[in-house]
Amino acid sequence: MKESERIINEIAQGLRGLDEGAVWFSGLPQNEQKRVLREVVSYAMQAHLTAEDGREGVRQSGVKPTANPAVMISLDPPRERLGRIVQLPPGEYVRAFRVLVSAFAVADTRRRNESCRGTCGHSWHNLSANS
Ligand SMILES: [Zn+2]
Known about the structure:
Layout: H1 3-12, H2 18-26, H3 30-46, H4 51-61, H5 68-74, H6 78-86, H7 93-116, H8 127-130
Helix pairs in contact: 1-7, 2-7, 3-6, 3-7, 4-7, 5-6, 5-7
The protein binds zinc ion.
């Protein structure tokens, strides 16, 4: 499992704090930050992120609801907006990361609770077994 995949999923499962994750993200080179944003977008789509998940994610992200990535993830339908969040200028990357990971956490928590129920074969939902 890639470092970024592990960290993103640890945050989503409450095993790692978002602030700690944002510090890790901030230390990456800019092209790698963009790659990680794309990665979170793909996870969010897999988890069937809704606009309501986006709004709940924004509330938990510590990012102002008026910030560009926060506005974009809260609009319906969010799937079209997710790709555009990655196109935001680099000055928005850390806010985009916080908002995307928080919203993914909301969608992924619902998926774990409703579909996976602790018995799924998703490697990223069984982190302790892989470490
Ligand atoms: Zn699962």
